[in-house]
Amino acid sequence: MATPTMRAIRLHQYGGPEVLRYDEVPVPDPGPGEVLVRVHAAGVNPPDRYLRGGMTTVPGRPEATVSLPVIPGTDVSGVVAAVAADVRDFSVGDEVFGLLRFPGFDGSAYAEYVAAPASDLAPKPAGLDHAHAAAVPMAGLTAWQFLIDVGHDHPSPFQRAPHRPMALGSGTTVLVNGAAGGVGHFALQLAKWKGARVIAVASGVHASFLRDLGADRFIDYTRARPEDLVRDVDLVVDTVGGPGSGRFLRTLKPGGALYPVLPGEFGEEDLAQAGGDVTVSTGQVRSSGAQLARLGRLLDAGTIRVALDSTFPLAEARAAHERAARGHVQGKIVLTVA
To answer: What is the per-residue pLDDT across 166-199, written as a single tens digit (0 to 9) for each?
Structure first.
């Protein structure tokens, strides 16, 4: 009997978007604790591009987690096609979405089918199509675990102390840098859900989008430096990182905190100007079907929304990665599977 096959994007070598190949491969079999998902959409995330570029280990896991050829991708939305004998929470025909096997590079979501741990999945929000649902898992869970509830006790590879989200409420001011991106637009909405006042920082083209999501104040970083305009912020969520990210320490009030989602660079001058009584705390997002289910209920209720920057057919994954490389993404980029 012939082995069933599917189409998938695979890497046979590392490099630019041109190394993404549209291959025919065997359909995976779900192992213990897994379900087979017929993929309808897969989200495009920074770790997918890091893997494509040659990163084979993730922070906290020094051993290589992949070998070529490999199917990239972690964010998925689809329909359960088969279940392992020990799975009780899902049945064939259920619509699901999830962040698969993260931290790690073995999610294999850029495919027509994927074998997914049942614990990484949640029921797809009924009010979302698969493209919007696939845009949620990594970005939404990152914002949730930074701002609402870490939800696990795994040691952080980035700092000794565990990350503890700050209590947010009506007396709290939160600045979100990179507010129009995947993590940023969820962080803005979750902070508003908790009652905080939110200052959104992005380029001017995103102003109306972010005000529509609930931003109380918008700063166009191409016209003014946020650190020159803002003081006495309780929390900065920096989704951009990189050189100069320490400047946001100057915006904090005593006792405030900076949460760098991506690695930042902080000099002694930045810390000195902040006055010393501030916290810098980060973490690493992890798969969680339970937390994703909570996000799903907020999405179904319309409390938070997910934005799509653009969608591309699975076969055009190269174009999707090229779009990501151009930057200024509003929401998320998603691959759709016919």
So the answer is: 999 999 999 999 999 999 999 999 999 999 999 9
**Residue 226: domain span:** 164-280
CA 234 – CA 303 distance, rounded (Å): 23
Q: Got the DSSP string for 206-252? A: GHHHHHHTT-SEEEETTTS-HHHH---EEEEEESS-BTTGGGGGGGE
Q: What pTM does this model have?
A: 0.96
Q: Is the peptide bond before 59 cis (omega within 30 degrees of 0)?
A: no
Return d(Cα 128, Cα 130) in angstroms, integer. Answer: 6
Q: Helical H runs in the chain?
A: 46-52, 130-134, 137-147, 182-193, 207-212, 226-229, 268-273, 289-301, 317-326
Q: What CATH number corresponds to the domain at position 25? A: 3.90.180.10
List the one residue out of 37, 29, 20, 164 whose CA is nearest residue 92.
Answer: 37
In DSSP terms, 233 is beta-bridged to: 252
- The answer to whether position 272 is within a domain reads yes
Structurally, the chain folds into a number of domains equal to 2
Nearest C-alpha neighbor of 73 from the set 97, 105, 116: 105
Tens-digit pLDDT profile for residues 77-130: 999 999 999 999 999 999 999 999 999 999 999 999 999 999 999 999 999 999
Cis status of the peptide bond prior to 69, with omega within 30 of 0: yes
Please calculate the CA angle 86-92-94 and round it to the nearest 5 degrees: 110
Same domain? For 13 and 133 the reply is yes
- Supply the DSSP symbol for 254: E
Burial label for 2, CB within 10 Å (0-12, 13-18, 19+), is: exposed
Who's near 22: CB < 8 A, 6+ residues apart? 7, 8, 9, 314, 315, 317
319 & 227 share domain: no
